[in-house]
Amino acid sequence: MTPEPVRALDALPVSRRDLLVGTGAFAAGAALAALFGRPSVAGATGVPPWPWPYRPLDPDTVAQAGYEGYWQGGCMYGAAKAIIGQLAQVIGHPYTLVPLDMFRYGAGGFAGWGTLCGALNGAGAAVALVTPKEAHSQILGELTGWYTQTAFPIYRPVGQGALTTSVAGSPLCHVSVSKWCAAARAREDSQERKERCARLTGDVAAQATRLLNAYHRGTFAPAFALSPETAGCLDCHGAAGMSDTLGKMECVDCHTPHT
Ligand code: HEC
Ligand code: HEC
Fold first, then answer.
1. Contact 204, 143 (CB under 8 A)
2. Which among 57, 213, 66 has a CA at the least distance from the CA of 142?
3. Rounded distance between C-alpha atoms, residue 65 and residue 59, angstroms
4. How many angstroms is it from 115 CA to the middle of ligand 2?
5. What is the pLDDT of residues 67-88, one digit of tens each?
6. What separation in Å is there between the alpha carbon of 258 and the centre of ligand 1?
């Protein structure tokens, strides 16, 4: 059955508009079913409750999919598609419902602003789709800590040479890209920089997959710890102190220590 195109709220017939503005799980689910053109199943909607079911994936396959996805829609799209797309192949419905185009906005650290690395953002969306809140906070904390300490890129497409690597020390796209540009003596707008980010997209998606696989098998064990310096700042500025700061990034990247 071909899904109906999604239309603006005002253009929907009254009955559907009512469904959309109605509150409660049934109305929301029914509205989704209406939007996606899927029949309701036994009072439910065909969309299972969150988190969605997961099955372990092959990290190498995911890395390659992330690399290829980067060239189609950028880093966030590539990372999200690598995992969700593999789940769509291995499990099928409901992963086939996810409109992957929504992940295009994350390219260049959110629409080119250089904030959160889009590969982390895309992998994060996929991880959050398949794990409850407590678990994905831990898994993504681990993924982000690993990201800040890893020399990227690792993934190398078959038959292609290695690139210069650099350690970002930060989850920010700006820091990650500019440190690599400095290390590689490459321009940000060069093909080589894009190749670097494409490979990094594969790396991040693959690492997220390893963490998800471990969580699924009951062997996930968080290991990331704040640097002693940042932990020291947070002793006073974090929740146990003045509580005027939120975050886990390296404070001294941006601030001069004070006495
Ligand atoms: C022993 C407690 C303590 C530690 C450790 C500490 N701070 Fe502070 N920090 C303070 C206090 C107190 C203030 C003043 C707060 C105010 O005036 O509201 C302050 C102010 C600041 C400010 C505001 C601007 C300024 O200089 O007044 C920044 C930024 C800051 N700290 C960053 C850091 C960073 C980064 C670290 C770790 C390298 C750190 N702090 C470690 C207690 C601490
Ligand atoms: C990516 C850069 C960056 C990182 C990393 C960072 N900060 Fe900041 N922080 C800023 C900026 C920019 C401001 C706003 C500065 C201003 O208004 O003078 C700020 C503001 C603050 C302030 C309030 C300053 C004031 O004027 O009173 C505190 C306190 C602070 N940061 C503490 C921390 C601590 C502690 C960490 C580590 C957990 C941290 N920051 C990490 C960039 C950063």
1. yes
2. 213
3. 10
4. 15
5. 999 999 999 999 999 999 999 9
6. 6
Closest CA to 109 of 174, 206, 161, 185: 174
Q: Please state, in angstroms and as integers, the Cα–Cα distance from residue 27 to each residue in 13, 30, 227, following that order.
A: 15, 5, 47
* N-to-C CA span, the chain: 67
Atom 39 (ligand 1) nearest CA: 233
Where residue 46 falls among pLDDT bands split at 50, 70, 90?
A: confident
Question: Is residue 205 within 8 Å of residue 60, measured between CB atoms?
Answer: no
Q: Which residues, 6 or more positions from 173, have their beta carbon under 8 angstroms from its beta carbon? A: 108, 109, 110, 113, 114, 115, 116, 117, 118
Which of 115, 233, 245, 248 to mutate for ligand 2's pocket (most ligand atoms within 8 Å of CB)?
245
Structure tokens at 131: 């794990």
Asked if omega into 257 is within 30° of 0 (cis), the reply is no
- Residue 218 gets the label, from left (phi > 0), alpha (psi -120 to 50) or beta, of left
How far is C-alpha 160 from the geometric centre of its chain's CA atoms?
A: 26
User: Which atom of ligand 2 is found nearest the CA of 237?
Assistant: 35
CA angle 136, 140, 144 (to 5 degrees): 175
Predicted confidence band of residue 184 (pLDDT cuts 50, 70, 90) = very high
Give the pair of three-digit tokens for residue 253.
Answer: 């990247």
Find out whether 212 and 58 touch, Cβ atoms under 8 Å: no
Q: Which amino acid is at 148?
A: T
